[in-house]
């Protein structure tokens, strides 16, 4: 199992008993040009307490040209890798942190000026209420209210992912459309945990394994899907909002 974070924002996680190779977009965690931090954490797979001796992780950082239909532009110097597992030790995790420079054609305000959530009293209860409200809207398939709740998130996504207005509308319709096609909300697990990231400015509820607590199931099609939501408290406000 591994986590990839950019600027302390989780951009990808996977729990896989085998090998995998993937290209992961990370722009959603890059809010402006300059130095960025990337961190990797390798963890035991679900149900295990120590790392498999063969566990390993390596990666490269590539740049694509948004002005040329995401044409490959260059690979940043260096190949990054997490240290290998020491067979003589029973290691519970491995981690690695590096920095890289990114030049992006935007400078966006998202969560970076939000409240430090580590200092918020009763954050657990606030977050559970926010998720419960979200779950109720999903269960009712209240599209208009859901659109309002995710407006900030979608605006950030549109800028960082270079989406046109039409592409943004398609993205939202695709997600909300699934709620009308037989998918029903699975109750949020009672043992859900609070996870704070984004340098203390962003939080979400996760399962004990680190997965999303917003899960839906289509019994007829025998399919499940997860929806990821994160919250912050904007500067000058006291209530959580989706970002």
Task: Sum this structure up briefly.
With 243 residues, the chain is of the alpha+beta class. It has 4 helices and 15 strands.
What does this structure look like?
A hairpin with a 5-residue loop joins strand 5 (62-65) and strand 6. The protein has 243 residues and is an alpha+beta fold. The model has no long low-confidence stretch (mean pLDDT 90). 20% of the residues lie in helices and 28% in strands.
Largest sheet: 4 strands, antiparallel
- What amount of the residues lies in strands? 25-35%
Helix content: 10-25%
H/E element string? EEEEEEEEHHHHEEEEEEE
Helix tally? 4
Task: Label this structure with key terms.
globular, 4-stranded antiparallel sheet, alpha+beta, 3-stranded antiparallel sheet, 4 helices, 243 residues
Layout of SSEs?
Layout (H helix, E strand, L loop, with lengths): L1 E5 L2 E6 L19 E9 L15 E2 L2 E4 L5 E5 L4 E2 L12 E9 L20 H18 L2 H7 L1 H10 L4 H14 L5 E3 L6 E5 L4 E5 L7 E5 L4 E5 L3 E2 L8 E2 L1
Antiparallel strand pairs: 1-2, 1-3, 3-8, 4-7, 5-6, 9-12, 10-11, 12-13, 14-15
